[in-house]
Design a protein that fits this description.
Blueprint lengths: L1 E3 L13 H10 L2 E7 L3 H13 L3 E5 L13 H8 L5 E10 L7 H18 L3 E6 L2 H10 L9 E3 L6 H9 L3 E4 L9 H9 L5 E3 L21 H6 L1
Parallel strand pairs: 1-2, 2-3, 3-4, 4-5, 5-6, 6-7, 7-8
Amino acid sequence: MLIDSHCHLDFVRFDEDRDAVVQRALNAGVTRIIVPALDLNNCRAVLKLADRYEGVFAAVGIHPNSSAGWQDNWIGVLRDLAQHDKVVAIGEIGLDYYWDKSPKPVQHRAFGLQLELAAELELPVIVHNRESNADVISLLAASPLNGVEKPGVLHSFAADWQTAVSALKMGFYLGFTGPVTFKKAEKLREMAGQVPLDRLLVETDAPFLTPHPYRGKRNEPAYVAYVAER
């Protein structure tokens, strides 16, 4: 049994063959696909997909790159959306210092309030972390999720081992994607090999980060098997 713990199945690149993509995933032994949201409109789109496909589940949240216009009343909207019976997490949330799309203080507030919401609803979080290791760990440590069982996952993990250890100590899972299959990714594979199996998740982040041997093509949930093999 395989689970693709992170796939943007709602993206336009799947519009022409989404049914076939889901069927190929099933044929490859993928029994669950988790589709995280990026903004409020996107939340509603992923819920529709969860309703449409039996093995598809949703996460609702505001991505850091979508947080520039953050309003605190969005928490109430997310709380209502999270009542859907196929919502399994709050996400994709976190920090992104690579793209200059939202001021850091706004990202921090959006992330912190969504961490509190996840704790309130007893849902895990799907965390986006790009070039923001120290602040992500600091905000997670200060959140009410620190110390709870199975608080969430740092998705598409590519940070340093110190960040990994800090996250693991708080009970978080680490999710690995297609780059772990790349020829020159020895350090990433070595790090993944040090993560306890009961704290390691595999994901595609499709349509991005396509694993070898399909690198350069559109990624899809069926390819999560190649990540798991590594």
